[in-house]
Amino acid sequence: MSNVSLGPGAEFDAIRELLARWGPRAIGIGDDAAVVDVPRGDRLVVSVDAAVEDRHFKAQWLTPREIGYRAIASALSDLAAMAAAPLGVLVAIGVPSSWRDRLSEIADGIGEAVDTVRTHILGGNLSDAGLLSITTTVLGTVYAPLVRSVARPGDRVYVTGRLGGADAALRRLESGETLSPFHARFGRPVPRIDEARWLSDRGASAAIDISDGLVADARHIAAASGVALELDADRVPCASGVAVELAIESGEEYELLVTSPRELDTIAFESRFRVGLTQIGRVVDAPAGAVRVLGALVANARGHDHFSR
Asked: Which domain covers residue 216, as residue numbers?
């Protein structure tokens, strides 16, 4: 797509460089808006997410490639939470002058993220800014979306992967340690797109991606469904060496928390994706929005809140 006809000027030169970097990953570029075909019978799913320097990341924590990758992957995780198949992404980048010589590396990370889920860059925007920011709009389609509001008493509660690695990496980064065995969990999260569609096809009902922490996101399902969730701390899968009390508060995991009225085949899931699927609790008939964790001192686990600081 590097031969797209664009006007003259430094901004459009930068866009041409991005398109040359992305190659066939970018499609339909050049008009005022993207035109996307939606499969007949499916529903369009759209979400937007922002990654802002010194709020969501610090320049010394991640490489430019990781910053670009992580911004797109975290947005794509919202599609995974709905069991939607990606149609493409729109990317708006605010680039300070101090970052312009690293824009191509950011672009490489963005390209790697769309490759991970086999989708494309459909367009976006490029502007000057005081801080680096990447705002990503993701588009997907699904016939029967997973939502937060359909969990019912008696449903089983499952979680994918192991929790706590992202928080452990963040704590080390905040202390000045840039090398960590958990670094990839923070810098290169994997949106569980294929995993979510597998779970949906096999009876999962409600779902959410764990961006604010297990307990905090479980409360979102409980509140939306008018039920309570009872979780067993002894069953929560933790990253190696991470205490369960920290694992269930760890945000930015981008694993899936799902409920299901029927038992899910955890062995088949792990065999298919090389990622664990663990039953960690039940949906119960109790005050709406409540989450009780048995066996751990986390009665008031906060999770992440953008306006809590």
From this structure: 156-294
| Domain closes at, from 82, 113, 142 | 142
**25-77 pLDDT, tens per residue?**
888 787 778 888 899 999 999 999 999 999 999 999 999 999 999 999 999 99
Q: What phi-psi label fits residue 164: left (phi over 0), alpha (psi between -120 and 50 degrees) or beta?
A: left
When divided into structural domains, the chain yields a total of 2
The CATH number of whichever domain residue 36 belongs to comes to 3.30.1330.10
117-147 pLDDT, tens digit per residue, is 999 999 999 999 999 999 999 999 999 999 9
| pTM score | 0.89
At 38, give phi and psi (nearest 5°): -110, 130
Q: Are residues 171 and 286 in the same domain?
A: yes
